[in-house]
Amino acid sequence: MPANLPPEYFEVEKGLRGARTPQEKIEIYEKLIGIIPKHKGTEKLVALYRSKIAKAKEEVERRRGAVRHVPVFKIEKQGAGQVVLAGTPNAGKSLLVRSLTGVEVEVADYPFTTRRPSPIMMPFENVRIQLIDTPPVTREFMESWFPELVKAADAVMLVADLSDGAAAENVAAVTARLAEKKVELAAGGADIPAERFPFVKRTLLAANKVDCPGGRQALEELKLLLEAPFEVVPVSALSGEGLEDLRRKLFELLRVIRAYSKPPGKKADQSSPFILKAGSTVMDMARAVHKDFAEKLAYARVWNASGLDGLRVNREYVLSDGDTVELHI
Fold first, then answer.
1. CA 117 – CA 77 distance, rounded (Å)
2. How does DSSP classify residue 75?
3. Which of 116, 237, 262, 320 could disulfide-link 268, Cβ–Cβ 3.0 to 4.6 Å?
4. Residues of the chain with CATH 3.40.50.300
């Protein structure tokens, strides 16, 4: 028995040649079934398309299963601390990393050049800070592993493009996507309880391309429109403007100090400081040097740029960045 298919059927069927995904094919198969006249001569054709729909749905499920096995990136921390970069496409994150570190990273003027997290060490005075370059985040897309990378980091550097009129909206989009995953980006001066630290990250905003035409005005507009507590640091990855200030701000964001160990009667090695959390005491310094010092420490002497010249202090003395400590047991 002839099927007597209408012209509309053949027009829709042409779409199968251009269908690339199982979901697209399913939609076309269902349209065809709706168009096919229902009689004895079309039963086999309808059954064929129903079979094709079932197979296509199986393919969809297989692909969903593969998506569940997403990569997990755990990057060992090095240096004074780990800072994850975050921003929308073409904000200039990779070029900023190259300018801050001197390391050649892939840079292009098209989005999603960076596909995997890339750890690169940034020098700051006599220490190094680990920067993690990452794929961009948009309102529609964020790598599934990205929030976990942020949770494990010490701090976050957002990057905004001052040449983009939607810079404030883009920053809001990134913060909103992370908020969906229960990750909050806080001000650099925020006090974060230890139990909340994976979910609340101190953040600063690098306002990139400040040297572009209209960049200064765009910077002021960004500050006015930005509904977030982040400190805004104007920079240019291309010209180098503001990079030294940004390096210092990143170090301050980590809330760490540098302390130098001085053996009695000798000079301290100023090139190799101990990195301690801000608020650390002489006792914390002793633990970092060697467990024997922590167990047998009697007192310490401290030198610093503020005028202390071998001042004798007890175990609970709170150290400052740049202190030189002589431990006595």
1. 13
2. P
3. 262
4. 82-253
Distance CA 164, CA 89 (A): 11
DSSP H helices in the chain: 7-13, 22-35, 43-68, 93-101, 146-152, 167-180, 215-225, 243-253, 282-289, 291-296
Alpha carbons within 13 A on the beta-carbon side of 164:
17
First and final CA of the chain: distance in angstroms? 103
The domain defined by 82-253 folds into Rossmann fold (3.40.50)
Sign of the alpha-carbon dihedral angle for 60, 63, 68, 73 = negative
DSSP 211-237: TSTTHHHHHHHHHHH--S-PEEEE--T
- The class of domain 256-328 in CATH terms is alpha beta
Instruction: Tell me the pLDDT tens digit for each residue of 268-304.
Output: 888 889 999 999 999 999 999 888 888 888 899 999 9
